[in-house]
Amino acid sequence: MKKMNFKLLSFITVVALFIAACTKKPEMPPTKKLSDGKVVTIAELRSIATCTNSCSRTFSTDTYVNGMVLTDEISGNFYNELYMRDGTGAIRLEFKNNNNLLVGDSIRVNLKNKTIAINSQSSLLEVIDLDFEINVTKISSGANPSPVVLDNIAQVNSSLFCNLVKINNVEFAVGDTSKKFADPITLASVNLNLNDCGGNVLVVRSSGYSKFAGQKPPKGKGSIIGIVTNYSSTEQLIIRKVEELDMSGSRCIQQYMIKNFNDNSVTSGNWIQQNVTGGASWTSSTFNTAANSTPFARISGFIGGVNTNTENWLISPAINLTNATSPVLSFSTAAKFSGNPLEVLVSTNYTGGAPSSATWTNISSSVTLSPNSSNYTWTFSNNVSMNAFKMNNVRIAFKYSSTTAGSTTYQLDDIILKEN
Question: Using only C-alpha atoms, what is the Rg of the chain?
């Protein structure tokens, strides 16, 4: 037999080794070993944060909480923070640096030398001053956490703080659909009002740093997904991305006019003031925030330390009720100090200037006002029928007056003209 060519043998050997290497099963990446230590649930952390037996809320040894990440920083609406939940609840985690985590990551957080607390302003369960590299171990990724599904805003409560929810049958207030989610120029955050068909309201707060800050909210009704948060006594929803708003359906109720003063302006939306006598005027205020944490209008004839003779009219823009079926007017007032009651009037021929240039119908007898003997008790006006004014150029006016004998301070908010 002839000897095999050495070069040919070497080539065959190399090819055989290459084929063997290609067909070899790949090795699985090593599983990251988790550190030993006590593991607690979010419910247990809440118990520690709310304990009343002088218990320590700062962890001196390795103590871990596991959970799934509900938010990330991709849209810019969350920054150096994330919301996480386990099977017992949800929590806010605040970092002193970027955390590089994504929605659906499962993580373990080491709480050693950290304090669990209920934030005094937001009432949220939280841990702050975390370092991603030191305190967090990512266990897995790629999950898709499901939101808690709610039928309406009334089902939002403190047990859902920090959790991901989907609220059905909601729409943005008609006066807010022309606004933007936030201000991309000044980077200021903005609150928009979200309503359900039962008249409940929830604030949707967005950051000026979010990628969708310059966009306007949808005008229809549908569902919205976001994180339930809170500030002072105001529950809020923070959305992760606008793609999680599915709101193309028909609105709940036809709203013809809404004025809630949340933009801190009395005359925005073509509202006007007419001072007939004296110097009293409506101003935007957040006085008495314990009862109403959003801005409202306020007026008083008590000027310079004395009661004065005043008359001021706050008049709405023209409203077209030609196609209305059963329109109703509603608003809320809060009052204090003796004086003349606030009057509510309607005109269909006012075009501007002095109120005396038009004909006005006084509907005050159908309205419920806050008693001026109270200490600013917010009172709903009831739904006042506007069936007698189903025509064009309808104006609503709030006439304030005071005398040297008495001057009631009135607060006014949430003026709505809608279908009943």
Answer: 30
Q: Among 414, 366, 417, 387, which residue's Cα sits nearest to residue 253? A: 417
Higher pLDDT, 285 or 194: 194
Q: Which two tokens stand for residue 130?
A: 């975390």
Alpha carbon 4 to chain centroid distance?
Answer: 82
Phi, psi of 327 (to 5 degrees): -70, 145
Q: Which tokens hold the place of 112? A: 């050693």
CATH architecture of 38-140: Beta Barrel (2.40)
Considering only 34-38, 88-92, 379-383, which range has the smallest mean pLDDT? 34-38
Asked if pLDDT for residue 244 goes beyond 80, the answer is yes
Cβ contact 34:108 at 8 Å: yes
CATH node for 148-252: 2.40.50.140
Boundaries of every domain in the chain = 38-140, 148-252, 258-419
Closest CA to 195 of 157, 224, 216, 163: 224
Quickly list DSSP for 269-280: GG-EEEEEESS-
How much is the pTM? 0.59
d(CA 216, CA 78): 19
Q: Fold identical between 148-252 and 258-419?
A: no
Of 294, 322, 299, 325, the closest CA to residue 175 belongs to: 294
Q: Does domain 258-419 have CATH number 2.60.120.200?
A: yes
| Ramachandran class of 70: left when φ > 0, alpha when ψ lies in -120 to 50, beta otherwise | alpha
Contact (Cβ atoms closer than 8 angstroms) between residue 327 and residue 321: yes
Residue 41 has pLDDT above 80, yes or no: yes
d(CA 241, CA 396) in angstroms, rounded, equals 38
- Is 324 strand, coil or helix? coil
Tokens (6 digits) for 58: 């700062």
Q: Quick one: tokens of 83?
A: 């919301």
